[in-house]
Write a structure and sequence with these properties.
This protein is an alpha+beta fold. It is 48% helix and 10% strand. α6 packs across α8, α13 packs antiparallel against α14 and α15 crosses α16.
Length: 449
């Protein structure tokens, strides 16, 4: 892990060069430097500079005042390395000092400074407090490179001060530990435990944004650190219920979708899933789908085509497929929970699934039970694929009759009409061959007798 591994995009080099040629300092800074040193492709490139916002705007033709009160100007650049055809924005921020944090969220004032060191000193963690340009190389005043090598998250300076300034940084520490698979340095962890109640100052929207990034990371199981550090009661009022239900496993092999990761997290408390998701201020679609995943986990795996069609009708193909993939991931994670006790079974060798070698008769019975569940999952996936391929009717809209047809048979518009349509749909879900106008009208007639 060396500074030479940082490769600046052409557009970033041009911005830095123009600022330097005008007599200012300029560096790539923060997460983009961290990710480059780790061999990751940065999502964004941020630049810090001694130039004031007005001076940055004078040097570049196309700019946007995205956060000018905090010294940030977005410079629009075009070139071969831009993601979008045309232009891409790069945030250029003046070196600054943050004033007192009166609310535990935002500095009351911001003052510009000519010192890069002072700018880096205000940042949250050492791994995010490094700067780089081709002329000066890596500027690492707080040991960020050392902490990257040690694979640890450590606050810049005094951890209690950093977390008192902005309480969300405590949850960010956990999020970075999950995204990077890093430990949290001991003094930093102790500060989180001591200041956990300060998280109540942070809006649920900001908390949810960090928790979502954690759950969508490569190590969602790190959510357990929320309980280890005492942050759980301040995530949502009902979040501590997860500890009462035993910490659920969170294998990364499950689909990396927000609603599914939340449903997987809440699967042991399905009755409270909707409430917790609402408390986190998630969007209605994520709440609905996440709650459905949590509820589905407690249902039996579908073993008949009728049951598969019924579930497809109720939940849709994407959610049902994600649920089965989640159940498979959970099953295989359970099988391999004991290190060194996994083997490939002939019945499940396709795709490299592994299960533990038996150690006793109970282990053998447990393995056989898991193998049977895996067989049911594969069977359900195959049946669902066949159902969708055939185009079986799965909704009222797909019936060979509609509401008008039923009204012509004397059924008035209203709840009774909906009840009869759902009855006919269930009749067709049992056997798709029944989806014929004459067959359905005859069934309706017999039902009304």
């Amino acid at each position: 892990m060396r500074a030479e591994s940082v490769r600046l995009p052409i557009a970033v080099e041009k911005i830095i060069a123009r600022l330097e040629n005008a007599g200012f300092e300029a560096y790539a800074v923060g997460g983009c430097v961290r990710d480059s040193l780790l061999g990751r492709l940065p999502d964004d490139w941020d630049i810090t500079t001694s130039a004031l916002p007005a001076e940055v705007k004078q040097l570049f033709r196309r700019t946007i005042d995205t956060g000018i009160q905090h010294g940030t100007v977005t410079v629009l650049m075009s070139g071969a390395d831009t993601i979008l055809r045309g232009e891409r924005g790069y945030e250029v921020t003046t070196y600054r000092l943050d004033g007192i944090y009166l609310d535990g969220r935002h500095p009351s004032t911001v003052a510009f400074t000519p010192s890069l060191h002072e700018d880096l000193a205000r940042r949250d963690f050492t791994i995010n407090a490094m700067a780089y340009n081709q002329r000066a190389g890596l500027v690492d005043d707080f040991g960020g490179l050392r902490d990257l090598s040690a694979r640890q998250i450590r606050a810049v300076g005094i951890a209690e001060q950093r977390f008192t300034e902005d309480a969300l940084r405590m949850l960010r520490a956990l999020r970075f530990s999950a995204q990077l698979s890093f430990k949290i340095e001991e003094e930093t962890k102790l500060a989180v435990k001591a200041l956990a109640p300060n998280l109540r100052k942070i809006s649920k929207e900001r908390i949810q944004a960090e928790l979502s990034k954690l759950l969508l990371s490569e190590h969602p199981e790190h959510y357990q650190r929320i309980f280890e550090t005492g942050l759980a009661p301040y995530i949502t009022p009902h979040f501590p219920l997860l500890a009462d239900a035993a910490y659920p496993a969170m294998p990364d092999s499950a689909p990396r979708k927000k609603y599914l990761r939340y449903g997987m997290l809440l699967r042991n408390v399905p009755e409270q899933a909707g409430q917790i998701l609402r408390e986190l201020k998630l969007d209605n679609e994520t709440i609905r789908l996440g709650r459905s995943i949590a509820e589905l986990h407690g249902t039996a795996l579908p073993e008949t085509a009728y049951r598969c069609r019924s579930l497809l009708s109720e939940y849709g193909s994407e959610l049902l497929s994600d649920w089965l993939r989640m159940e498979e991931a959970l099953l295989l994670a359970e099988d391999c929970a004991a290190p060194g006790r996994c083997e490939v079974l002939p019945e499940t060798a396709e795709g490299g699934e592994t299960v533990p070698a038996p150690a006793a008769s109970d282990a053998v019975r447990s393995r056989d039970t898991r193998r049977e569940r895996l067989r049911k999952i594969r069977q359900a996936e195959k049946q669902i694929e066949e159902i969708l391929s055939r185009g079986d009717c799965l909704s009222i809209a797909g019936l060979a009759v509609n509401g008008r047809d039923l009204m012509e048979q004397g059924i008035e518009s209203g709840p009774k009409l909906g009840e009869m349509l759902h009855m006919l749909l269930d009749y067709v879900l049992e056997d798709p061959e029944r989806n014929r106008r004459e067959t359905l009208l005859r069934r309706l007639f017999l039902t009304l007798l």
